Amino acid sequence: MTLTLSAPSKTFLAGEYAVLAKAPALILNTGPRFELRVRAGHGEVTGLHPESPAGQWLEQRRPLLEKYALQFHDPHSGAGGLGASGAQFLLVHTLTTYLQSSFEKTMSGPDLKDVWKDHDVLSRGRGSGADLLAQATGRVSVVDMATLSARAEEWPYPELGWVVVRTQQKIPTHEHLQTLDRAAISLLSPLAAQCVQAFASAPSEVFLGHVKDFTARLSELGLQAAHAQTLVKHLENEDWCLAAKGCGALGADTVLAFYPTEARERAAAFLRKSSLQVVASLNDLSGGLELQWH
Q1: Cα–Cα dist 20/80, whole Å
Q2: What is the per-residue pLDDT for 114?
Q3: Residue 131 CB neighbour total at 10 angstroms
Q4: How far apart are CA 130 and CA 10, in angstroms?
Q5: Of the candidates 25, 69, 128, 183, which lies 20 to 30 Å from 156 by C-alpha distance?
Q6: In this structure, what DSSP letter does residue 238 have?
Q7: What angle do CA 21, 24, 27 make, to 5 degrees?
Q8: What is the pTM of this model?
């Protein structure tokens, strides 16, 4: 028998960096999914760096794992910006909770505050932990950092589609956060709150306007990498593209582009012609944490 725990990939729709100041955020959770595969074994762990929060968490609980072999599978093969580190910690934390308690308790879902607090200790408070909350929840996650809670929503705008493409470049998030000047981060908070408040309650063009405002402030604060901004401009020059923004550390890893639903085929054709790799689209929205026996 094999136990597989899985969590979705994540992309910030709005609120990145602002979450460091406890602002709310919107996070898209999509396939492909990260997996932690658990088999009978002798304590082997593969696919996890021992100094990562997930690796440290497992090392502290080594006696629990003596009869198991753990393998973490990253469907993105190390490409950044999509939540591998958050998924790792969420999955190993859930596994050890399962091993220490009842199956019923684990299946009721993780205690998000406990997961966040444990991650915050091991990461020394460098990250926000918003990805953990979102990936546990799934779909379009509305994250409230003030209460360390999240809820899953469906995409509310049938007339508005989106796609996530790779930039083919990567900035390690943990290294970037160590050198981040956090003094101006609070300037993002009201714009992030406007995006969250408008989501599903305002027309799509109003919501998208707030996302554009948030992205513009990221750029003003130097939080959008030059290569990502070049790709954003390349996409926004196309008549099908309503807006685009870099995502991941410094917006460097992926670009999220929006288009009218009726322009979906034109957008797909352009991306193919430009040899841009699609990571996910609206059709790939995925649920939160899952456990499956095989």
Answers
A1: 19
A2: 93
A3: 31
A4: 10
A5: 128
A6: S
A7: 120
A8: 0.94
Which amino acid does the sequence have at 223?
Answer: L
Query: Do the beta carbons of residue 94 and residue 110 sit within 8 Å?
Result: yes
Distance CA 255, CA 257 (A): 6
| Residue 139, C-beta contacts closer than 8 angstroms, at least 6 positions apart | 29, 152, 153, 154, 285, 286, 287, 288
What residues have CB less than 8 Å from 277, skipping those under 6 apart? Answer: 165, 166, 168
Q: How confident is the model at residue 133 (pLDDT cuts 50, 70, 90)?
A: very high
**Domains parsed from the chain with CATH numbers:** 3-154+285-293 (3.30.230.10), 160-283 (3.30.70.890)
Confidence band, pLDDT 50/70/90 cuts, at residue 79: confident
Task: Check if the beta carbon of residue 184 is closer than 8 Å to that of residue 176.
Answer: no
Token pair 């306007």 is found at 209
Encoded amino acid at 96, one letter: T
Q: Give start and end residues of each alpha helix (H) in the chain.
A: 53-60, 84-100, 103-107, 112-122, 130-137, 173-178, 189-198, 204-220, 226-236, 264-273
Contact 292, 3 (CB under 8 A): yes
Give the tokens for residue 21: 């100041």
- Rounded Cα distance between 54 and 42, Å, is 18
Kindly report the number of other CB atoms within 10 A of residue 196's CB atom. 22
For residue 176, pLDDT over 60 is answered with: no
